[in-house]
Automatic annotation (TrEMBL), chain A:
PROSITE patterns documented for this protein: COMPLEX1_51K_1, COMPLEX1_51K_2
Name of the protein described by the UniProt record: NADH-quinone oxidoreductase subunit F
Keywords noted in UniProt: 4Fe-4S, Flavoprotein, FMN, Iron, Iron-sulfur, Metal-binding, NAD, Quinone, Translocase
Entry function: NDH-1 shuttles electrons from NADH, via FMN and iron-sulfur (Fe-S) centers, to quinones in the respiratory chain.
Cofactor: FMN; [4Fe-4S] cluster
Highest taxon of the lineage: Bacteria
Family listed: Belongs to the complex I 51 kDa subunit family.
NADH-ubiquinone oxidoreductase 51kDa subunit iron-sulphur binding domain: residues covered: 340-385
Cited PANTHER family: NADH-QUINONE OXIDOREDUCTASE SUBUNIT F
Single GO term (MF): FMN binding
Enzyme category, top tier: translocase
TrEMBL record, chain B:
GO CC field: membrane
Residue ranges occupied by any 4Fe-4S His(Cys)3-ligated-type domain in the UniProt entry: 89-128
Endpoints of the signal sequence: none
Gene Ontology terms for molecular function: 2 iron, 2 sulfur cluster binding; 4 iron, 4 sulfur cluster binding; metal ion binding; oxidoreductase activity
Protein species of origin: Flavobacterium hercynium
Family: Belongs to the complex I 75 kDa subunit family.
Lineage start: Bacteria, Pseudomonadati, Bacteroidota, Flavobacteriia, Flavobacteriales
Name of the protein this chain belongs to: NADH dehydrogenase
TrEMBL record, chain C:
Key words of the record: 2Fe-2S, Iron, Iron-sulfur, Metal-binding
SUPFAM superfamilies in the cross-refs: Thioredoxin-like
InterPro entries: NuoE-like, NuoE_dom, NuoE_N, Thioredoxin-like_sf
Cofactor(s) listed: [2Fe-2S] cluster
Cofactor, free-text remark: Binds 1 [2Fe-2S] cluster.
Protein name (record): NAD(P)H-dependent oxidoreductase subunit E
Species whose genome carries this gene: Flavobacterium hercynium
Binding residues annotated for [2Fe-2S] cluster, in chain numbering: C93, C98, C134, C138
Length: 455, 343, 176
């Protein structure tokens, strides 16, 4: 068994409740931080740990904390991003549902580090039952004296509340999340100013993912250096991976960063291999936004090294032959899956979730979806593949927030690695009429037809 | 602070945006702006037309910025170097944004009252592709009546949100906003309510396209057949400057608007009373004709510059039809000049 | 855009108002608007799971904001329903990972079983079915949301059972 930091107590009966959580060493980090450390020392430990943001971008958490504006004298806020909506990702919900006090403990310790006296957990509206779990857990923590005025007699005050969204992927973007928390439409803000200077109600704000904040108690209880020893290189610590698709054991796993993709995929401790006898075709390592990779680039990088579960190894080769760790949404496809259909599905998702504020994303995501729908339904034209490529390249990098990039990358990667599948759809519309077209006749069996057809 | 745009340097105050600096320099390097409006707080950043390349961040941190930046919301830094018209990347991005803005646009300029003074028309003229790559069905919206003075054509809207900012910043009771989301986002009151506060007419002036037009001027004239004169009156509405442009056809005032500068922004906002209720010449002190912009459609009527001979390149396939028609009307024996294929 | 108007009976009970005031208390005194999203959820849950214009106006009044600010928000987020819907709304996740595990077939099955298409409501007002985007349960696919809860690893048999339970009034929709 490898190192567990977040889920080490997940199997303790009753760990959901305050009493059991406390009996198992819960809230120790709050005691330690408030009584023996200064806020800056907490920040320093997190910096030393090398902990990187677990929401997808992988930005060093301690560094993000150090940007918060303390000079202005305005009230500061910590906001936890629990708007988990990236297709393929469901790890935060697992943490909050089964060990809610871990997040609350992390919120208190982290808020102390930032000097925040009013903090929020922003949870997606669909997780309504988890919202209620957190509400009750916060009430328990408050009753036990971990929240409120003069916590542990140290003079530190903190109010923590949970706030629910109402169905918008874009609210996972930190400035859209802040807008939504202010009771507005989830339109991302123009940056700069960054939230660290002007965030919630124009106050300095840090927004962190659930998993990031949940790792803080361990770092404070042990040390930043101890955390940095776990993992590999700049990918320190452990990471929750949400695994789904055509695998034997889907679910949430805590892995030590540096584990090989091969072991994660095939060992019984983790995914246990494929769900059926159908062979592996492709995978997405970090949620729908990151590039899909074909079978031959999954276990080995382009230059023949073992592919590892680290930020660096998964992006080895750039977008040409690599992908990204992202939020850790590990989606596995066997050969019954159609890459074109899957790409259309993702494109529909991004079209549906675009906020509509800036031009390239508002107009481009819908266009991508319409073309992909035509190709998948046998009305594709040969030039549509180039058109798709061109549209995605025109969206990428030209939008206010990263949703434009997130919508472009899956399309680009699908064409880059599975172009022949697109050509097959365009050239043999009769063969792809049924949506399960590759179930009876996998692409590997008909691939040879693509080259023979002259257009 | 010194900033250099397309090789031209200028000293600016801290807090100046790249777009403002470019406008101070003037000329071709000024990025187009569809959503930014200097008189409206919080405008800009949305349309992405004004993207520029920052090739040097500042003297202190000379690294180039990896992404193109929206010049209207990016502040100048000392020593910053910016490429606008001189950059192929920028040109390419502007073309892309123009294409995106046009795919769902109805392209109904021939019946649009904004035609001739439309920023989207100007943008397409410079950056548009004459051929559309969009073969899907265009998005449309159910029409909504927002009162007797303002016509809302949602299908033409580019969601710059200037009209929302006008309502927020000029009035104290905004009744319209952006509803729905993504490519279905639309300007609406949600309840088909008339937008009738005293300054609502300014929504028309700030609208860069034909989405909000003057109902009292609807289909009256093409803008280039009107002669604009600056005029003023003693307006009693608090907050109204009373200084306008009146658009005349012969002795008749067909339309009243705010006075716009070279970037099509009004100099000062005017009230609805001036705009909609004073169409009699005797209501106004006419100051004199406005200067035309050199390249404006209105100026094309003056025929002062030398006109190039218009070359019409008719597509070959169109001419094929003539052959068929010629046979139908029994003129087959008369040869056509440059088409011997069927004879 | 012209919108259709639907009538709704408004009943702001004391319990509901208490809950609303509690939610408002989570934000600074001068930031009442911040409570908008949670308040709309509560109000919707107490009003047959939809929000008429009048009800939205009522929320605007409580939070001391303009009605348009509420309309803007209600139309942006997918979880607020702007017209009457069935008592039980089956919201199937139709994003990639669920589709890999048969979500589309299951949606077809439910649609056929209830005799309505996606997005429609049965004539008796009992069921509405809809396809929605990723609900964050990719490892437990196929799945759907019903009220405040998720129903996961669905099969045709489980759908049959759910429909039967709904008809027998055995389903709890909200966690109060």
């Amino acid at each position: 068994m490898s190192k567990k930091i977040l889920l080490d107590k997940i199997n303790v009966p009753g760990i959901k409740t305050y009493e059991v959580y406390r009996q198992n060493g819960g809230y120790a980090s709050v005691e330690k931080a408030l009584k023996t450390l200064t806020p800056d020392e907490v920040v320093e430990e997190v910096k030393k740990s090398g902990l990187r943001g677990r929401g997808g971008a992988g930005f060093p958490a301690g560094m993000k904390w150090s940007f918060i504006d303390k000079k202005s004298g305005r009230p500061r806020h910590l906001v936890c991003n629990a708007d988990e909506s990236e297709p393929g990702t469901f790890k935060d919900r697992f943490l909050m549902e089964y060990i809610p006090h871990l997040l609350i403990e992390g919120m208190i310790t982290s808020s102390f580090a930032l000097g925040a006296n009013l903090s929020y957990i922003y949870i997606r509206g669909e997780y309504m039952w988890v919202f209620k779990i957190l509400e009750r857990a916060i009430a328990e923590a408050k009753a036990a004296g971990w929240l409120g005025k003069n916590i542990l007699g140290t003079g530190y005050d903190l109010e923590l509340h949970v706030h629910c969204g109402a169905g918008a992927y874009i609210c996972g973007e930190e400035t859209a999340l802040i807008e939504s928390l202010e009771g507005k439409r989830g339109n991302p803000r123009i940056k700069p100013p960054f939230p660290a200077v002007s965030g919630l109600w124009a106050n300095p704000t840090v927004v962190n993912n659930v998993e990031t904040i949940s790792a803080v108690p361990w770092i404070i209880n042990n040390s930043g250096d101890d955390y940095a020893k776990i993992g590999l290189g700049r990918s320190t610590g452990t990471k929750l991976i949400s695994a789904s698709g055509h695998i034997k054991n889907p679910g949430v796993y805590e892995i030590e960063l540096g584990l090989s993709v091969d072991e994660f995929m095939n060992s019984d401790e983790y995914l246990g291999g494929m769900s059926s006898s159908r062979p592996l075709k492709a995978f997405v390592p970090g949620g729908s936004s990151v590039p899909i990779l074909p079978a031959e680039l999954i276990f080995k990088t382009a230059n023949g090294e073992d592919r590892l579960m680290t930020y660096e190894s998964l992006s080895d080769g750039g977008f040409a032959t690599g992908s990204m760790l992202g939020s850790g949404g590990f989606i596995v496809y066997n050969d019954t899956a159609c890459v074109v259909r899957n790409t259309w599905n993702f494109a529909r998702f991004y079209h549906h979730e675009s906020c509509g504020q800036c031009t390239p994303c508002r107009e481009g995501t819908g266009w991508l979806e319409k073309i992909l729908w035509r190709i998948e339904n046998g009305q594709g034209r040969e030039e549509d593949i180039e058109l798709l490529w061109s549209i995605q390249s025109k969206i990428e990098g030209n939008t206010i927030c990263p949703l434009g990039d997130a919508a472009s990358w899956p399309v680009a990667a699908a064409i880059r690695h599975f172009r022949d599948e697109f050509e097959y759809h365009v050239r043999f519309p009769e063969k792809i009429k049924h949506r399960d077209h590759f179930v009876a006749e996998p692409f590997s069996q008909v691939k040879h037809l693509v080259g023979k057809q002259t257009v | 602070m010194k900033v250099t745009i397309d090789g031209q340097s200028i000293d600016v105050e801290p807090g100046t945006t790249i777009l403002q600096a470019a406008r101070m320099i003037g000329g071709d390097l000024v990025p187009p702006a569809m959503c930014y409006y200097s008189k409206l707080k919080g405008s800009g950043g949305k349309c992405r037309c004004c993207l520029v390349e920052v090739s040097k961040g500042s003297e202190a941190d000379p690294r180039p910025m990896p992404k193109l930046m929206a010049s209207c919301v990016t502040g100048c830094m000392d020593g910053m170097e910016v490429n606008s018209k001189s950059s192929d990347r920028v040109t390419e991005a502007r073309k892309s944004v123009t294409e995106f803005l046009l795919i769902n646009h109805p392209l109904d300029c021939p019946i649009c009252d904004q035609a001739g003074e439309c920023d989207l028309q100007n943008l397409s003229f410079e950056h548009g592709n004459p051929k559309s790559r969009f073969i899907e069905e265009k998005r449309t919206f159910e029409p909504e009546n927002i009162g007797p003075n303002i016509q809302l054509h949602m299908n033409r809207c580019i969601l710059c949100q200037r009209c929302v900012q006008v309502a927020d910043q000029l009035t104290d009771n905004r009744v319209h906003g952006v509803l729905d989301r993504g490519d279905h986002a639309n300007i609406s009151t949600g309840i088909s309510k008339a937008i009738d506060n005293e300054f609502s007419g300014n929504m028309i002036d700030v609208c860069p396209v034909g989405a909000l037009t003057d109902k009292t001027f609807r289909f009256k004239s093409r803008v280039w057949f009107n002669k604009p004169y600056n005029a003023h009156r003693e307006c009693t509405t608090p907050g109204c400057c009373g200084k306008t442009t009146v658009w005349m056809f012969g002795g008749e005032i067909q339309r009243v608007t705010g006075r716009k500068d070279e970037y099509h922004e009004v100099e000062e906002f005017i009230c609805n009373s001036c705009r909609f209720e004073h169409k009699d010449v005797n209501d106004w002190v006419i100051e004199g004709p406005r200067e035309f912009e050199k390249d404006s459609v209105i100026n094309q009527n003056n025929y002062v510059q030398k006109l190039e001979k218009v070359q019409i390149d008719t597509e070959k396939n169109i001419l094929l039809g003539r052959d068929i028609d010629r046979k139908k009307i029994s003129m087959a024996e008369i040869p056509l000049n440059n088409n011997n294929k069927n004879s | 855009m012209e919108r259709k108007h639907y009538k709704q009976e408004i009943n702001m009970t004391e319990a509901l108002m208490n809950r609303i005031n509690e939610l408002i208390s989570h934000y600074p005194e001068d930031k009442r608007k911040s409570a908008l999203l949670p308040v709309l959820h509560e109000v919707q849950d107490a009003h047959n799971n939809w929000l008429s214009t009048e009800l939205q106006d009522k929320v605007a009044e409580i939070l001391n904001i303009k009605p348009i600010e509420v309309y803007e928000v209600v139309t942006f987020y997918t979880m607020y329903n702007q017209k009457p819907i069935g008592k039980y709304m089956f919201e199937f996740c139709q994003t990639s990972c669920c589709c890999l595990n048969g979500a589309e077939n299951l949606m077809d099955y439910t649609s056929e079983k209830l005799g309505i298409k996606m997005g429609e409501t049965t004539p008796d007002g009992m069921f509405t079915i809809a396809g929605v985007e990723c609900l964050g349960a990719c490892g437990y696919a196929p799945m759907m949301q019903l009220g405040d809860f998720y129903k996961e690893k669905l099969t045709e048999e489980k759908i049959d059972q759910l429909i039967a339970d709904c008809k027998d009034d055995k389903i709890i929709l909200h966690d109060k």
